[in-house]
Prior knowledge:
The complex is a heterodimer of chains A (457) and B (548).
Chain A: E1 17-18, H1 25-33, E2 39-44, H2 47-61, E3 68-69, H3 74-79, H4 82-95, E4 100-105, H5 107-111, H6 116-125, E5 134-138, H7 147-159, E6 172-175, H8 181-194, E7 198-200, H9 226-231, E8 237-241, H10 243-257, E9 261-264, H11 270-284, H12 290-310, E10 314-319, H13 321-333, E11 337-343, H14 348-357, E12 366-368, H15 373-382, E13 387-390, H16 395-401, E14 405-407, H17 425-447
Parallel strand pairs in A: 2-3, 2-4, 4-5, 6-7, 6-8, 8-9, 10-11, 10-13, 11-12, 13-14
Chain B: E1 3-7, E2 10-14, H1 16-24, H2 29-36, E3 39-41, H3 69-78, E4 85-89, H4 92-97, E5 120-121, H5 126-131, H6 134-148, E6 152-157, H7 159-164, H8 168-179, E7 183-187, H9 197-211, E8 224-231, H10 237-248, E9 250-257, H11 262-267, E10 273-276, H12 279-293, E11 297-299, H13 305-319, H14 322-350, E12 354-358, H15 363-373, E13 377-382, H16 388-392, H17 404-407, H18 427-435, E14 455-457, H19 462-472, E15 476-479, H20 481-489, E16 494-496, H21 508-523, H22 534-537
Parallel strand pairs in B: 4-5, 4-6, 6-7, 8-9, 8-10, 10-11, 12-13, 12-15, 13-14, 15-16
Antiparallel strand pairs in B: 1-2, 3-14
Helix pairs in contact in B: 1-19, 3-9, 6-8, 9-12, 10-21, 13-14, 14-21
Amino acid sequence: MLLRHTPKEITERSALMINPAKTCQPIGAMYAALGIHGCLPHSHGSQGCCAYHRSTLTRHYKEPVSAATSSFTEGASVFGGQANMLQAIDNIFSVYEPEIIAVHTTCLSETIGDDLKQIRKKALAEGKIPEGKYMISASTPSYVGSHVTGFSTMVKSMAGLAETTGKKNGKVNIIPGWVEPSDMEEIKRVTKMIGVKSILFPDTSGVLNGPLSGEYKMFPEGGTTVAELKSAGDSIGTLALGEWCSADAARELDSKNKVPCKVLDMPFGLKATDRFIDALRTIGGVTVPDELSMERGQLVDMISDMHQYLYHKKVALVGDPDQLIAMTEFLVTLDMMPMHIVTGTPGKAFERRIREITKDLPYTVNVKAAGDMFLLHQWIKNDPVDLLIGNTYCKYIARDEDLPFVRWGFPILDRQGHQYFPTVGYKGGLRLLEKILAVLMDRKDRDEPEQSFELVM
Amino acid sequence: MATTAIKKNKLVQWDPADVKAKLLAKYPPKVARKRAKQIMINEAQENETPEISANVRTTPGIITMRGCTYAGCKGVIMGPTRDIVNLVHGPIGCSFYAWLTRRNQTDAGADGENYMSYCFSTDMQDSDIIFGGEKKLEKAIQEAYDLFHPKSIAIFATCPVGLIGDDIHTVARRMKEKFGDCNVYAFSCEGYKGVSQSAGHHIANNQVFRHIVGENDEVKPGKYKINLLGEYNIGGDGFEIDRIFKKCGITNIATFSGNSTYDQFASAHTADLNAVMCHRSINYVADMLETKYGIPWIKVNFISAKGTAKSLRKIAEYFGDQELIDRVEAVINEEMPAVEAAKNDILPRTQGKTAMLFVGGSRAHHYQELFTEMGMKTISAGYEFAHRDDYEGRQVLPTLTVDADSRNIEEIEVEADATRFKPRKSPEEMKALEKAGYKFKEYEGLIPDMEKGTLIIDDLNQYEAEKLVELMKPDIFCAGIKEKFSIQKLGIPMKQLHSYDSGGPYAGFKGAVNFYKEIDRLVNSKVWSYMKAPWQTNPQLSATYGWE
């Protein structure tokens, strides 16, 4: 047993977190910044933060992740990091020549009170930011929120680049939230299919799922351009996908640039995708094409075809709030039984939303925000499940409890596919179903007695 | 002076001075001046090793390979120990990123204590930063104790802990006294200390020595007792070395720290020899064990078959017992045929190829021996976090200046233990060994082992790595995970040499075979020929397609 010291009996913990279901804000800020074309993320802190975030993102995507750091030493920690940051700005624009740098803070620079907005002003005054180049910043202390809030904060800073010219551009801003590059690509495909012009930000497609061609581009083709971000202030509306990841940026555009917004769930599963498509066609004033209705029908078809393997299967899930909300709804849609749901990100609103989605189930779900995987594991020991959905760290629980396991979330360090195959939209729903069915049916094949081993399933 | 590397289908010519100039060309003048001192054209001849600047600050804004002090302390040294609850005091990230990511293997048996698959954190919130985190830390230690009753709990400080002034050492002492049966101690390894992981190694060495070593005086059975220092059992390296030791009849009392336990550290002072693998990360403990308990240390290298054989002979020679000397020779004779066979299989495909290694504080040196065995030449190498002694040899130690960044890293004063100091050899025996060419406490560093005209570069960064590959076109590049894919995008295979990414062990005899195969696989993979589509290599339509 790999988690052999986890007892079944649940005791209250108020200070010790074990096996977290979250990580810290800066990595989210870094991921978001990678979705801007020509952007070099910069970590204002000691160089370990940057090294850890780059390593984790690299292991998840198997792609290069470039980011710079202020390389704090003890001296900088005492006297403030302004000198390091100014020097970094100078070096970055000389050596790497990005279009824009997106700086986020860390617990270190926040604790000593460095003010990035003020440092930016000084850098501008000293001419350290070349003409036509940009610097944006986000305050992301690691002791607040989680990687999800760090992502959201950086996306909000991106929205800060939006300008209002008074002339509408006829586009819809779509803020996809922390989803995979493949998901961002899928959202663009569907949007194009419907015939709505859009500005998607951030957009890591073409950045973190690049080709091997013998060339290394530090700033790949993908990403939302600064020009697009500027133009976002002239859009006709904004669809924010996910309250936790995307709403703040959308509301910023609403209040600052008067671009009206609608906050939706992330389009995972049938119903959340329905709501996304419906909102998109309404805001864009277009008709949904038959091809998309066809894709929806295919998803419904597979649900009906395979319902017998899904019905009343008990599920434990762990991940990030926006993803879990949509996934829980999808599981309920499939007549499955989400039992235990944990996110590491704090926020009681998450628990309320999950309770609302699961209110018609014949039992009360276990749900916890600011929880950890140790608790999830204990819940599973007390009330066993048929399926576990979560990031790679769940494989230790899955092995110990002998559970079918679908990898979904961040980080996924031991399997491939998330970069290339979306799980958003109807096509993504098909893929989620395929993955869930595969593990459930493999388990049936493994455990079925020889007499009833089935060829046709 | 032009150096030529002959490769299949291509002839790469480069002049090291020209390469160096090109690496520096784009930097602002101040950065260029600093980097120039860290880029050395090797002239290592007649022991006149030139000086290289190392263990100095990374320039802000430069995309460095380096990590932080916490990573060196918790991640590298303490991470591989299985029965200590490693509790990280800080916001969640630091503990999360060091959770199982270094591929340290351990063998706890069916029911032994093993906390390596767990991640413990106080998950500090803003209120803890404002009002102090000591109370939360104390509570977390209590909760860990109540849940697991471990024999030991280690506390690690992250950046904000030092800034807000939480006294983690006092909390640790208080809890240790309260429990009575659990050793609790703390590491002030805030990420901003020092200039790289290296400071964290030193801090870990100090606290392990201060709080654990010497706690168990029980004499373990075994005729030839050693400690293996600076081996982290990544990909099972330590398992392979232990297999060989066992076969030779050598008892490994403690490994610092691959596959280790609390008791191994506690008993380390009962060994009779310290064999040091990674000089950078662990030499402090080796020195302290010698001063306090009288255990001499030697440098070994179990990376490469020849290195393994040499190291085993060195250990046998130290004990000087014919039985052990014969046993070691028998083991080498038994193991080498399989190694030779594997080498002969790959040699036609690897001979003449070139490598670059930028990793660690020892690996960029150790792994060159493996490449040499494969007939491959290392054309450029350097460390990520080493000091000058790792490049130039320990003879430079007295001349090293202590700068502002090193000054704050504690040097603990160690004296001979009143009752337990016991010289393992008489002064005459030591002299006789030294006279016969045996070297204690010596590490000659990487420079003397590299050829003239090669480039030795400290703290290589992403920009320079890309330039080096472009200019010198090695057949393989070795560094860490952050560097891996930017290099591979250029069509050059990259072997991760921190945690290997996959595979291993690469230490010992079986490890050498694994490494030969791995490098053969990488440098001869067909995938590097697929990078261009047919229409990209021949974009002009020269004829129309005739439909049948």
